[in-house]
């Protein structure tokens, strides 16, 4: 059957839409990518998302409206990938939409309980595309004691596990996250966690310092030098010492965090700042492996995905931090770095349609395996 996956991550670089043919479910899942596109989020909507994520000047009417505005944008992305493939959206069995994360609270603090909020109204998507929509994937995992993230590990278990080698899948979106697949693993052996910042701090600094949305191919970072004082400060960040399972997001590494760094180091060369922030992403990934992965597994390779996989300087820094491990990209494996997470939600949605679990308790901390997502049907 045909299915669409929609993904908009913390980097806010667009809505990824992938059209796939999927058969079977569970460990018998087979998937083939047919078409892919990334649709730009309009600037006014992107600014509203940033305000919400930064917990700044937020009103309830803003979030209420943004939920429906994003629903329209997700529907447009789904229709765009169908148009590119020359099919009618009515012929799609389902659309799996991650939604846009507005806020994520993995642990209680103050008067707040563990919770998460992804918006992008599924009823809008279902009605515009005239096919079922699966959304709100994270909440069921949190209902059974999990952190609601990461969810991608189930799909990586389906697609990448090996009988005789341990493999790590490192996604570098706005946030970095790793999935560890031990040699010959079952789903109960898989574990995953957020390694820390991915592109988020780099992209925010690029917007403030260069008025660009990102450092293309890591060109600016390649011209800079590491600022030792900033390096020492970043190495002491408390997140790096938290033990998995753990998750993070804009609430920790978003605009306020970057603004404070830029204020403190405003006298430094701009390219040096970008180089040091890029190094921090590489270091946070490698340090996570050194502390929480390599003591238990001898990795044969690390496969990079997400937008950060296109940053040649970042990839080189990761190679320098992990000199004895082969560092590859999704393209090296015949897949797409950009489409990876959208494909993951096709797989998760397929499990939901088959009434089959798709969370990984070792990754999220959930007390049990559960069926993820809500299903919205069109008229």
From TrEMBL:
The protein's matches in SUPFAM superfamilies, at most eight in alphabetical order, are given as: Actin-like ATPase domain
InterPro entries under this entry? Anhydro_N_Ac-Mur_kinase (IPR005338), ATPase_NBD (IPR043129)
Instruction: Write down the chemical reaction(s) this protein catalyses.
Output: 1,6-anhydro-N-acetyl-beta-muramate + ATP + H2O = N-acetyl-D-muramate 6-phosphate + ADP + H(+)
Chain sites annotated for binding ATP: 9-16
Q: What is a GO molecular function of this protein?
A: phosphotransferase activity, alcohol group as acceptor
Q: GO terms for biological process?
A: 1,6-anhydro-N-acetyl-beta-muramic acid catabolic process; amino sugar metabolic process; peptidoglycan turnover
Q: What pathway is it annotated to?
A: Cell wall biogenesis; peptidoglycan recycling; Amino-sugar metabolism; 1,6-anhydro-N-acetylmuramate degradation
Q: What is its EC number?
A: 2.7.1.170
Tell me any Pfam family this protein matches.
Answer: AnmK
Q: Which CDD domains match?
A: ASKHA_NBD_ANMK (cd24050)
First-level EC class: transferase
Record key words, sorted: ATP-binding, Carbohydrate metabolism, Kinase, Nucleotide-binding, Transferase
| Recorded superkingdom | Bacteria
Q: Which family does it belong to?
A: Belongs to the anhydro-N-acetylmuramic acid kinase family.
Summarizing the function annotation, the protein's role is: Catalyzes the specific phosphorylation of 1,6-anhydro-N-acetylmuramic acid (anhMurNAc) with the simultaneous cleavage of the 1,6-anhydro ring, generating MurNAc-6-P. Is required for the utilization of anhMurNAc either imported from the medium or derived from its own cell wall murein, and thus plays a role in cell wall recycling.
* NCBIfam families attached to this UniProt entry: PRK09585.2-1, PRK09585.3-2
Which protein is depicted?
Anhydro-N-acetylmuramic acid kinase
Organism of origin is Amedibacterium intestinale
